Sequence to fold (163 residues):
Amino acid sequence: MSLGTIGVFILALVVMLFGLAGTILPMIPGLPIMWVGAFIYALFTGFEKINWTFLGSFAILTAITTLLDYLANLYGAKRMGATRWGILGAFLGMLVGLFTGGLPGLLIGSFLGAFLGEVLGGRERIQALKAGVGTFLGFLGGTLIKFLVGCAMIGMFIWKVLF
Fold:
């Protein structure tokens, strides 16, 4: 591997690691960013080791995982009786929590936002609490799926490039 190729490989990995962080942090499209990292490597190396078939597989994996994340969030919220108020509250709570308390704030903010959203939407506190828990669990499940798929994508990328 030439020095230039090593540099592009490192750049691609840095982009992919930023994307991996985006699988946890809201508002950062983690998996699409990881695809861009693989595309950068493919483009600068003439699609020698990473080809369009590989990139297409990553794109399909990204689309399926994004759908699963969305469905996991909805399932968790709806399973526990959340309304759109709770889902909106969870999203806003995630954002506020992220900027005020990092990753722990993100988790707590998701739960509190869902709870407060349900209360403001007119639900009883016990129903709001249940919806908050469901929304939180759905968020956690979706995030776990995205993170694990992101790790697998990085592993596949490294394997394909090095072996």
